[in-house]
Amino acid sequence: MTFNSALSAHLATGATTTCHCWAITRKDGTTLGFTDHDGPLAFDGIAFRADSGLSASALQQGTGLSVDNSDAIGALSDSAISEADVEAGRYDEAEVTAWMVNWSAPNERQVVFRGTIGEITRSGGAFRAELRGLAEILNRPQGRIYQKTCSAVLGNAACGLDLDQAAFRAETTATDIAESRVLTFATLSGYDDGWFTRGRLEVLDGPAVGLSAPIKRDWAEGALRCLELWSPLRADPGLGAMFRLDAGCDKRFQSCREKFGNGLNFQGFPDIPGEDWLMVPPSRSGSASGGSRR
Predict the structure, then answer these.
(1) Which of 95, 276, 279, 282 is the 20 to 30 Å CA partner of 123?
(2) Can you tell which superkingdom this protein's organism belongs to (predicted)?
(3) Tens digits of per-residue pLDDT, 28-37?
């Protein structure tokens, strides 16, 4: 790591005025700043709060490919990090950047950690968040898998399908919400039963804005349409909230071709033999020459 030359000179004096600052950027674009200094600081367009109660344990960093981890510990409060936002998952996989800063001259600073938030635990009005370094991504499987089903995510670059079409995406409100998991709609005519099964629901406004969940089932009950989610939304969206529903994809070539008209971009191998192919018994023709049967 190459330190900021001005900060290095300051550290060399032996009488330092340094602190740490953290910037947390959530997936919804919200950025929050915190510092362990006794007063607020500001740089890079971010205001770092000193009254948040947030602190971090010593960073574990190495020069190799090992994962760098740390913990962020803080108190839950509505003015800083609220319990409702943590419970709703708004800080899951949020980006974290930490600096060592000369608080008397904030331009003298150095990034000492960059990564994401991992597991979050809550207890007694406080939270502990695992900070995962950039090397964490090396633990994720890479490359393609040879399989019959498609490996792409519907609508991503590999899939190439434009989901922003009325045939594949609907925006509407719910007439009933049970346990934040089963939703009833009155305005989904024109879509076949099961059209949204394996799809995705996203909340567009209200107290749960930005939250999403995969759809487990989609069925009709008379003139109404019901959707069941695999897991409840982590915040109550409330009646009147607008939802976006994306069509579901079962990853089969037939569905890719017939439901989405996207067969040319299918990212699976529909003709690959299944595992049972290895168990096919030998021919009973009596010939053991290895030639083809006629």
Answers:
(1) 95
(2) Bacteria
(3) 888 989 888 8
